[in-house]
Every structure is written in C-alpha cells, then in structure tokens.
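[recover] target loaded
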C-alpha cells in the first residue's frame, strides 16, 4: 500500500501568500480553486492576516461529515539575498519551518501527514531508484548501487528482514538492468554513426 501523496491535499504556499500580499495583518481573503471548466473559482479557504501569523478557515468533508476547521499558523522569516527576507510557516504540529502546509482535518506539514511526493512523472530509472531507496531505508542500507546490507533493524523479525533484503536485491538488479538497457542503446547508436 502506498503512502498518501502531497498532491492528494489542498495546500498553502507561504511564498505564494506573501507574493499576493495576503500575510498582512488585517487582510481577509478567500482563496479559491480553479474550476476545471474555466468557471469562476469557488472560495474554499479563508485567510486572515494577523500579528505574526495568519488564521486559516475552511470546511473539511470526510465520511459524509463537514467540519469547520479554524487554525492559527505562526510565521517566521529568514534573511536571504539583497536584504530581503523569506517567510516560513511554522507547522502547527511539529513547529518546524516549512514553506508548504497541507489541509485535511487539520493543517500540518508533509512530514506530520507522512505524505510522499508523487513519482509518476519521472522516468523509469528514477522511479526504480526511488523504490530501491525506499525499500533500502526500511532495512537500514545506505543509498547507492554498491552499498552492503548492514544490520537487521531492531524489532524486525529475521524472516521478514530476509524477505525485504531479497526484494531489495531484486530492485537493485532491475535498476542495473535498466541502466544496462540504456548503455546498450547508446552502443547501438554509436554503431550507426
Ligand atoms: Zn509538521
């Protein structure tokens, strides 16, 4: 079973809000989502600028229930080039500085929601490497095509570890097969020149 993806949720981008001047205290804005048929966007998220933060309000529907979510989000800033500052949200749950927050029954960052980035738009090799690394992390190997197995993670059953390690080896082999295919293709191209 895959993780939920960042693209599954509405999100707030602090840089976007700043650019649009929506972080200013006293400002009250309704943000909409563009309708697919080009109709007027319907307002979904209310943003109210406050002192040192913004208040966000929206309705969240799940299991046939509509919930009115209201959340204060604190802001932070860091210095960047030419004396400008760049804004950050502080995640309401982990309080880390983040540029993006995701909206569901609460507002929090990608890590708190355990969201993965979508990988369907990358090439075959990248996707295979991504999967290999994802599995490698579960069994404690270092990233890369030459790293050894290290040790069985605490609490993981031997059988399970062996099964995952074998699967990891298969994934590495498929990465190498893909690379091999690319190299062969290149060799054929060289022969034709
Ligand atoms: Zn967080």
């Amino acid at each position: 079973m895959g993780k939920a993806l960042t693209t599954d949720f509405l999100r707030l981008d602090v840089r976007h809000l700043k650019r649009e001047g929506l972080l200013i205290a006293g400002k009250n804005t309704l943000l909409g989502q563009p309708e697919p048929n080009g109709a007027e966007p319907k307002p979904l998220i209310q943003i109210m600028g406050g002192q040192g933060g913004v208040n966000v309000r929206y309705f969240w529907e799940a299991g046939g229930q509509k919930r009115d979510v209201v959340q204060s989000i604190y802001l932070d800033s860091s210095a960047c080039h030419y004396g400008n500052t760049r804004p950050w949200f502080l995640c309401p749950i982990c309080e880390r500085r983040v540029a993006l927050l995701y909206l569901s029954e609460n507002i929090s960052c990608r890590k708190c929601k355990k969201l993965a980035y979508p990988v369907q738009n990358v090439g075959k090799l990248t996707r295979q490497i991504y999967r290999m690394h994802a599995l490698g992390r579960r069994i404690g190997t270092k990233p890369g095509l030459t790293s050894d197995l290290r040790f069985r993670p605490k609490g993981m059953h031997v059988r399970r570890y062996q099964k995952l390690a074998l699967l990891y080896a298969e994934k590495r082999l498929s990465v190498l097969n893909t690379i091999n295919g690319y190299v062969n293709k290149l060799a054929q191209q060289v022969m034709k020149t």
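[recover] notes: The CA atoms of residues 54 and 73 lie 5 Å apart.
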